[in-house]
Amino acid sequence: MGPLQISGLICGCIALFFALVTGLTYFRIKKFISLINESQMEEAMPIIEKQRRRVYGYLVASSIFTLATIVLSIINSI
Known about the structure:
Elements: H1 3-35, H2 38-77
Helix pairs in contact: 1-2
């Protein structure tokens, strides 16, 4: 295994990790929203907004590492 393959494997694992964390965080938010009623929604909005930003950050990180994996794979195949 060359250094490009090892780098691609590491980037792929990191991308998979961020994708799993994104999914788990998203479903945790979804469950939290289903447990509260309309009167509690206003109080919970700062928590939901903070978690939404976290999901967005994880999604961006996962996308970046996925693109890096694809680029390293293309470079390695040339």
